[in-house]
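Researcher: Let's do a round of design. I'm pasting the structure tokens now; please hold your answer until I've finished.
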């Protein structure tokens, strides 16, 4: 496994950004979390000049063998269908991306179909993971490869000029894998973390809880062993997300995470790279009922709570207008000196 070393974020750039914000013609901290967002990005980019004009959402697509257990209301073929549909501009994430001027890329790391489309970044590890109830979801080599792919794709899009990266995913039954990861990572009872995923019934959710419990009982991965958790109950797209976070952080580029699946990936990325939290922006608290627990354990505070349950990167994309807004504030507002308010705290 590669050794990931991240440079500390720039406290100098953060201080300079805060001074710029405080000097604007407004109450100190008057823009609340928008100011916190600007300061965080400044530290990551090592510059008080916020720059995110070129942005790209990486959507990692993969299927899950555990779908065989009937944990999802959606057939597995939908992963392949939506992978193409997204590139054609017809999914929720694609429509939102168009409105916020964000490039979208779909990376096939394990779709259970042949995606014969030149727009797809073909990095298929396998036609879906194995059924985690019957055998480990992937081999150790496959787990490492999924992270390597995500890291390399992040490097490539950053080298092409992107200044901020967003992460999304496509994969039927991936909420089952994410719930299993979080349950293993934080010793959470499956009944507390397993949610309704693709709007399944309570009867199916109870079955899904049993499936996750069976897998965890069989493999019992240690809660501090990220690679074994990923290998036994994870997904290729989740591993790729871990790698993309690390790859972007290595290059001083902020990463906007989506919801529940991204937070499962973050829980493992923290074990591999403890400083990773400094580089990620958590977008929203999704409808998946395990999200609240994930947020608590990760000690994160997502910016939005819009009751989203789509995935694909939708929540991450909706953070871009907030960043654009604070960028405009920084360039268009008058300063205290220009207005001569004579403010005295």
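Researcher: That's everything. Go ahead.
Model: Designed sequence:
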């Amino acid at each position: 496994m590669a050794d990931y070393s991240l440079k500390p974020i720039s406290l100098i750039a953060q201080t300079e950004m805060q001074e710029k914000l405080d000097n604007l013609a407004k109450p100190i901290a008057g823009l609340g979390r928008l100011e916190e967002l600007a300061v965080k990005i400044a530290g990551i980019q090592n510059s008080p000049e916020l720059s995110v004009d070129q942005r790209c959402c990486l959507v990692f697509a993969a299927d899950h063998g555990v779908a065989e257990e009937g944990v999802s209301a959606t057939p597995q073929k939908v992963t392949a269908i939506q992978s193409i549909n997204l590139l054609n501009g017809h999914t929720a994430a694609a429509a939102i991306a168009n409105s916020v001027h964000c490039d979208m890329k779909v990376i096939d790391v394990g779709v259970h179909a042949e995606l014969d489309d030149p727009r797809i970044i073909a990095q298929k590890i396998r036609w879906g993971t194995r059924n985690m109830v019957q055998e480990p979801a992937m081999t150790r080599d496959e787990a490492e490869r999924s992270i390597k792919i995500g890291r390399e794709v992040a490097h490539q899009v950053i080298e092409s000029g992107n200044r901020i990266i967003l992460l999304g995913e496509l994969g039927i039954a991936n909420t089952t894998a994410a719930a299993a990861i979080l349950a293993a990572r934080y010793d959470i009872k499956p009944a507390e973390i397993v949610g309704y995923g693709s709007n399944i019934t309570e009867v199916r959710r109870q079955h899904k809880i049993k499936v996750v419990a069976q897998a965890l009982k069989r493999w019992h991965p240690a809660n501090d062993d990220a690679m074994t958790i990923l290998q036994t109950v994870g997904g290729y797209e989740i591993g790729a997300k871990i790698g993309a976070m690390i790859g972007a952080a290595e290059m001083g580029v902020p990463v906007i995470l989506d919801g529940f699946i991204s937070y499962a990936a973050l829980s493992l990325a923290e074990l591999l790279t403890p400083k990773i939290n400094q580089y990620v922006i958590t977008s929203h608290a999704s409808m998946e009922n395990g999200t609240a627990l994930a947020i608590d354990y990760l000690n994160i505070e997502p910016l939005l709570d819009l009751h989203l349950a789509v995935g694909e990167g939708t929540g991450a994309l909706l953070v871009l207008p907030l960043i654009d807004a604070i960028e405009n504030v920084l360039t268009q507002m008058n300063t205290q000196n220009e207005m001569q308010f004579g403010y005295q705290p």
